[in-house]
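User: Please predict the structure of the protein below. I'd like the answer in C-alpha cell form so I can feed it into my own downstream comparison script.

Assistant: Understood. Taking the following sequence of 741 residues as input:
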Amino acid sequence: MANRVRLVLALHNHQPIGNFDGVCEAAYQDSYRPFLDVLAEFPEIVISLHLSGCLLDWLVEHHPEYIDRVASLVDRGQIEILGGPYYEPILASIPRRDRLGQIVEYSARLEELFRRPVRGMWVPERVWEQSFVGDVTQAGIEATILDDHHFRSAGLVDDELHGYYLTEDEGRLLRVFPGSERLRYTIPFADPSETIHYLRQVGERCPDAVVTFGDDGEKFGTWPGTREPVYAGGWLRRFFEALRQHGDWLIPCRLSDVIDQVPPVGKVYIPDGSYREMTEWSLPLPRQEEYHRLTAGWDAGAGGDTAVARRFARGGFWRNFRVKYPESNEMTARMLQVSARLADLEQQEPDAPQQRDLDRARQELYRAQCNCPYWHGAFGGLYLPHLRNAVYRNLIEAETRLERVAGRGRSWCAVDASDYNLDGRKEVRLAGDRLVAYFTPARGGHLYELDVRSIAHNLLATLNRRPELYHQAIVDLAAHTAAEGPAGHDGAAEARSIHHQATCKQPDLHRRLIYDRWPRKGCVDHFLQPGLTLERFRQGEGSIGDFTLGAYAATIRQQADRCEVRMHRQGNVGPYRCTVTKSVCLRAGGSRLEFDYWLDELPRGVPLHFGVEFNLAGMAAGASDRYFYDSRGATRGPLETALDLQGMDRVGVVDEWLGLDVALEFSHPAGVWAVPIETISQSEGGYEAVFQSTAIVPHWEFTAPETGSVHFRVSLVVDTSAAQARKLLEIPAPELAVTGS
C-alpha cells in the first residue's frame, strides 16, 4: 500500500464587480451548480471553497438556493468556507486599513451565513508580499494558499513542498500552503489517472505528504472547452471515483483538517510574487519577450539543469502593472485618493446621517478595489470597459457622498493642484457639484478624467492601443490560416489549459493591430499637416508639432462661482516656433467645460492645421441607441462609425441607455473627425476586438493672419436630464397622508 497522502482541494469562485448578469448566470449554470451536484454524490470527498464577496452577493440575490446548498454541505462537514478580502482586491494595491477592513468584514459576513468560524483565506491572484502576514493574522486568519512558485522562489525544491510552512512578520505567525502547479495543469485537463499516479509518486517519496490544489472553480465548466468533458464526459465524476477508489492511502482534507492534524514542515519567508504566469504578464513587453524566449519549452516536470534554471527564473513584480498600463495607475491613484479622504472624514466625529454616508462610501470604495480591471493577462479585465467603468462608478459615488459629509452645498466649484496620479508632478483638478475634471499640464495639458456625478460615469475611462506579446501569435495564426486554411476544431477533444488558447473570435484581427502614439484622452492638441486625411490620422500619422505630449506651464484661479486652469506652452510647429495658451473653465452648478485656445506667434501667411482631440469612453458600440448627431441634429450613425464632417459648429454623442448626451460646440465652424478606438486583446475565449472609446477631433485649416494670432473656443456640454427623469420615474410615490379635521 502507498504511503498516506492528504489532498487539499481548494476551489476559488469569482466574478468581478461590474460583470454582466448573463456572464455570472452562465458561470452558475455551467460550473458552480453542476459542481455541487456531483460533489453531493461523494460525501467522503471534502473541499475548501472560496467564493469572492462579489460573487457571494450576486448568488444571494439571484440564486439563494445555492447558498442554502453550500450551507448544508458546510453543516455536514463536506465543505469548509475560506475567507479573504471582501471584494477580491489585490492586497498590494490597497492601503493597509482597507486590507484589514475587507478581510474582517468578509469573515463576519461568511460567519453570519454559514455559522462557522473562518480560519483560512484566499489571496487574490496569489499576489504576495511578506508584510501581508501581519495584516492577515490581525484580521483573524490562520492559514492561506500560495503557489508552489512562491516557495521555489524562496529556495525550496519539489519534495520540500508537500506540506505547509509557518511564516512570520513582526512576531505574527501564519500557515502557508504551497498550491501545486502540476495539479493546476492536470486538473481537469488530463485523465484522472495521471493525477493519481503523480500523487502516488509523491507518497512513495514523502511519507505523510500533504498536496494542495488551489485554483479557479470556473475551470470546471466555465473555461472554454471544459463543460463538455468535465460533466457530459464525466471527468469530475471519474476523478471523485478515483479518489474514493484509492481512499486507503489518498485522503481528501480541508485546510483546517491539515492545520489541526499535521505539524508544519518548517518555517519560510516568501519573496514578493504571484503565480508564475502573472509574473510574466507584469513584465514590460521587451523583457516579456526575453523571458518567453528563455523559458520556451520548459516543462513543469523537467529535470536536470532545466529544473534548476526554472527554480531561479524570476518574472516581474505585480505592482509594475501600474507602470506598464498608465490606465491602471490612474484608477489606483484615484482609489487611493478616495480611501485617504474617507479615512480623514472618519476622524471628524460624524453625526448619524454622516456616518451612514461614510459607511456607504466605504462599501463603494471596497467594491472599486476589485482586482480584475487593474491588470491584464489571460484573465485580467483591464481591457474590458464595463469593468473599468464599474471601478469609476463606485469611486465617483463614494466621493460624492464624501463631499456631502464634508458639507459641500448644492452649487459649488473648486480648483486645486496636487500630484493626483503619483508621477512626481502636479495635476490640476476642477471639481463641482456636477463635473470633476483632472488635467496633466506636464503631459500635453491633457484632460485625463472627466466624472459626471449624476450618473457616476467617467467619460475618459479610455484605454490605449499598445503592442502585446500575443499579437505576434495573431499574426502567425493569420499567416497559417492563409497558407493552410482554418484549423479544424474538435469539440470532443481534450480541454487544454486556458494559457494555451489560440483562437480568434473575429476575422482579420491582424489587420486591426494599430498602436497609439499619444494618450487617448481629452484636450489633446494637434498641429497637423495641411490637407491631412482622416485615414492617415487614424494610423497616427501627420503630426508636425510637439504640443501633443509637451509640458505646459499652468496657473489656477478660483472665484466664488467660477474656477479655471490656464496652461501655456511655447513649442515647435515644423520649422516654426509658436505658443499655445489654453484655458479651461468650470462654473458652479454647471455641466459645461469651456476650452479657450489662443494660438500666438504663428508664422504669417503659412497654411496651418490645428485640432483638439476628445475621447469619449464607456458608451458601447454596435447599438442603435448609441449614436452621433451633427449640428443640424441629424443622426450620423452608431459609435463605431468613422466620420469626416465639414463645417460643423456642433457635434454630439447620445447614449440612451446611460441617459447621456455629450456635445462639443465650436466658436468657429470646424471639420470633425470621429474615429473608433478598438483594442485587440486576449481573453479566456481567445483573441478579440474590444471597442474602447470614440475619438472626436474638431480641426481647423487656416492661413495664419498678419496678427499671428487666432482664437478658438470649444465647449463640452454634458446633459443627463434623460437619466435624471428615469431616476424620478423609479422612485416609488409616497403613500398619501390622510388627516382628520
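That's the full C-alpha cell string. The longest strand covers residues 660-683.
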